[in-house]
Amino acid sequence: MKIVLAGGTGFLGKELVHFFGTDENEIFILTRGKSHKKEGVNYINWDGTTIGNWTACLEGAHVLINMTGKSVDCRYTEENKKEITRSRVDSTRVLQEAISQLKVKPNVWMNASTATIYRYSLDKLMTEDDGEYGDDFSMRVAKDWENAFFESELKDVRKVALRTSLVVGKSGGVYPVLRRLARFGLAGRMGDGKQKFAWIHIDDILGIVDFVIKNEQVKGPVNCTAPTSPSNAEFMKALRKSLRIPFGIPQPKFLLDLGARIIGTESELILKSRYAYPQRLIENGYQFKFENCQDALNDLSK
User: Fold this and answer.
1) DSSP per residue over 20-76, as a string?
2) pTM of the shown model
3) For range 80-104, the mean pLDDT
4) What is d(CA 263, CA 127) in angstroms, rounded to the nearest whole number?
5) pLDDT in tens, 56-90
6) Is residue 274 classed as helix, strand or coil in its secondary structure?
7) How far is 146 from 125, CA to CA, in rounded Å?
């Protein structure tokens, strides 16, 4: 199977390469770095904006997964806001243009998206069918991203937008940061602790990608979240239990705002209530490896 990963050098990209890196698969990664081949993986230079020689690697690909986009782990200055949006929308549109010119198009195109597309919610569970969108910066980015992805159809190409929640994994995502806070005794509730913490174990992200490839009936937006969304206070308690840390100092909002400013990020990344449910995956038969956060965090603490 020929797999192309656009923006595949980050945490999720490396995990996908490890998961699919067998003799049966040929992997290409579109990167802003130099073109080269390493450990059987083909790295192809592209700028994420314009058509170039990189389009050749898409010819005859079975799977395209686009994860391109500036990290949201930064201060939301006007310049950063523009780059966060531009990097996602431009890369999606140039891939659309490139695929339209191919003789043999990918069978399935998965585009990264985010569960942050839904409004702040403490009580309404957001599914793909009846989720309610909001209109702050993060939500507008998500909507612009998906609009660029779905605005034009590609014949014989199945499109899936992966609305990913907070990923917990040993080597990346939100887990290493939270584990470090816990070891300093700072893993108490954040803010009032009531905000919903939509999360997913890295093993399930990999499982979902594999499931989507194999199941042709899955298309459109897909919530990539565990079936259960604890409150922030409940999640932090489960984290402390998994690490055998007896206490965690609560972090009030003003302190989180100050800390976020000092380290160059935004407190909304941890304070927003993400309350999403993977209805489409469950209806199509996906079996989660980790359904509750305690089991997931226990696994990561080993």
Assistant:
1) H-STT-EEEEEESS--EEETTEEEEE--SSS--GGGGGGTT-SEEEE-----S-S--
2) 0.95
3) 97
4) 33
5) 999 999 999 999 999 999 999 999 999 999 999 99
6) strand
7) 20
Helix%, strand%, coil% for the chain, nearest 5: 40, 20, 40
Per DSSP bridges, beta strands 63-66 and 2-6 are parallel
Best CA proximity match to 277, nearest among 228, 213, 236, 212: 228
The Cα-based distances of 105 to 59, 64, 97 in angstroms read: 6, 10, 12
CATH of 2-300, one of 3.30.429.10, 3.100.10.20, 2.60.120.10, 3.40.50.720: 3.40.50.720
Q: Largest Cα–Cα distance in the chain?
A: 60
Please state the rounded mean pLDDT for residues 170-196: 94
Cβ atoms 226, 292 nearer than 8 A? yes
Give the Cβ contact number of residue 5 at 10 Å: 26
